[in-house]
TrEMBL record:
Lineage of source species: Eukaryota, Metazoa, Ecdysozoa, Arthropoda, Hexapoda
Family (UniProt): Belongs to the NFX1 family.
GO cellular component terms, A-Z: nucleus
Transmembrane segments: 458-476
Species of provenance: Henosepilachna vigintioctopunctata
Entry GO MF terms: DNA-binding transcription factor activity, RNA polymerase II-specific; RNA polymerase II transcription regulatory region sequence-specific DNA binding; zinc ion binding
Pfam families documented for this protein: zf-NF-X1
Keyword Coiled coil recorded: yes
Coiled-coil regions, chain positions: 397-428
Domain annotation NF-X1-type: ranges: 1-18, 51-70, 78-97, 243-277, 283-301, 343-364
Protein name: NF-X1-type domain-containing protein
InterPro entries: NFX1_fam, Znf_NFX1
Length: 478
């Protein structure tokens, strides 16, 4: 269609490189391709071949499908084999193979066409059954060859159990037909046949009597073998507890981690009662530990006591206070003793029991005055106690005494005059209060007479009162 584009040349022209729209061979697709290349699509042909069974499946088929060359593959009338011929129309030829029908052991045989094996009864066989035993016995009881299950084994089991060394005396029970519960009939006219299944039943419990000792080793009794396990006799355990004072009251049990047959184990009862042992003399506290072996630990309770001097009330540990060697030191508060010696000075020792020690060694300074208390000197206490400390008055003291005596006399005289004036004033006030109105009119004329009469009446009592007051004043001044 197209002309060569090249210049004049020898030999044949090259491939045409022009692009043209071409239709595929099956006519379903159009595409632009080079003029020199054919165009084939990828669509598979779906037409049936001449067998009218298999599709063509050829890519871009032009309509002339090839003949079918696949095997037929249909199942033959025997139901066991397939047709080996090339794919064809119509029925296949019958199977030309044969089969054997045998008894269970396979010694007696019958030849039948293929497909008839399950429609022909197997031949009878007089040979002994070769079924392997389905129990633990090596051989079955002798019987003829047969199909189906063998009759149950009637031999003695004689198998030993896991927890027992005695042989089982019952008949073999490894393959026993047992009824299985099935769904009940939905209507009364429907019958549901009972179904059975072969099962291996366990051996029955061994009943051979066996002597068994209880867990706490209290008694021995005969029990059936399957129940022959150490058990509790429900008596009290009776083992001695760790406190060494009480016994275990739990029912008979297996004792663990016990050093001997008397001591209690780790799983025995734990004594929770209080300690009842006697306390040391003087201790009024209860032991804080529960019941325990041996002696009680030292009492650590705090005790409030009075020190020797009675000034403080310290808290001390009970055990230390009860120790006679430590008690004087513990009861001492450490402060200076507040008591005084017989000399009147304070005790120099720390807080102590009993009388103050070393009273004769007191050497505190004591001030001693002379009789007039003008001169003072300091002496040690021991000299004062022995009456060796004396202070005498000097000439100055005597002069001072005389001057003081003169002053005192002058003072006393002045006081007497003042008291006389006070007494007169009090008498005048007393008279004014108890005189009547009539007497007041004649007061100017009768004042002198009444004063004289009053003095005459009360002369003695007034004089005694004045003398007593003067004596008291002079006594107080000295």
């Amino acid at each position: 269609m197209h002309r060569c584009v090249l210049k004049c040349h020898k030999d044949k022209c090259g491939i045409c490189l022009e692009t043209v729209e071409k239709q595929c061979r099956c006519g379903q697709h159009i595409k632009e391709v080079q003029c020199s290349k054919p165009f084939f699509c990828e669509t598979k042909c779906k037409n049936l071949r001449d067998c009218n069974k298999h599709p063509c499946n050829k890519k871009c088929c032009d309509g002339n499908c090839p003949t079918c060359e696949k095997p037929c593959g249909k199942t033959l009338s025997c139901g066991n084999h397939k047709c080996a011929s090339v794919c064809h129309r119509g029925p296949c030829y019958p199977c030309n193979l044969t089969e054997f029908v045998t008894c269970f052991c396979g010694e007696t045989k019958l030849t039948v066409p293929c497909g008839r094996k399950y429609k022909v009864k197997p031949p009878k066989c007089n040979l002994p059954c070769k079924h392997p035993p389905d129990c633990h016995h090596e051989k079955r009881e002798s019987h003829r060859c047969h199909f189906g299950n063998c009759p149950p084994c009637k031999q003695i089991c004689n198998r030993t159990r896991e927890n027992c060394n005695h042989p089982c005396p019952n008949t073999c029970h490894d393959a026993v037909m047992v009824k299985i519960e099935t769904a009940k009939a939905s209507a009364p006219w429907e019958e549901v046949k009972p179904q059975k299944q072969k099962k291996c039943l366990p051996c029955l419990d061994c009943t051979v009597p066996v002597p068994v000792q209880c867990l706490g080793f209290h008694e021995i009794s005969n029990w059936p073998c399957h129940l022959a396990k150490p058990g509790s006799c429900f008596r009290p355990c009776g083992r001695l507890l760790q406190c060494q004072n009480h016994k275990c009251t739990l029912p008979c049990h297996l004792v663990e981690d016990s050093p001997n047959d008397i001591q209690a184990g780790s799983n025995c009862e734990i004594c929770e009662s209080e300690c009842t042992k006697e306390r040391p003399e003087g201790c009024q506290h209860q032991c804080l530990k529960p019941c325990h072996p041996g002696k009680c630990p030292p009492c650590k309770q705090m005790l409030r006591i009075k020190c020797h001097c009675g000034m403080l009330q310290p808290y001390v540990v009970c055990n230390e206070f009860l120790n006679p060697l430590k008690q004087p030191d513990i009861q001492s508060c450490g402060n200076q003793c507040p008591k005084n010696y017989d000399c009147g000075h304070r005790c120099r020792a720390d807080c102590h029991p009993g009388p103050c020690p070393d009273a004769e060694l007191c050497k505190k300074k004591v001030k001693i005055f002379c009789k007039c208390k003008r001169i003072k000197k300091e002496f040690s206490c021991d000299l004062v106690r022995n009456n060796k400390a004396l202070v005498d008055c000097d000439m100055v003291c005597t002069k001072l005494k005389e001057e003081t005596n003169k002053k005192n006399k002058a003072i006393q005289e002045e006081r007497k005059k003042l008291e006389e004036l006070k007494n007169k004033q009090e008498l005048e006030k007393y008279i004014k209060k108890f005189e009547g109105k009539k007497k007041q009119r004649d007061k100017k004329y009768q004042s002198e007479d009444k004063n004289e009469s009053f003095l005459k009446r009360y002369y003695l009592p007034l004089s005694t009162v004045i003398i007593i007051s003067l004596m008291a004043f002079t006594f107080l001044s000295y």
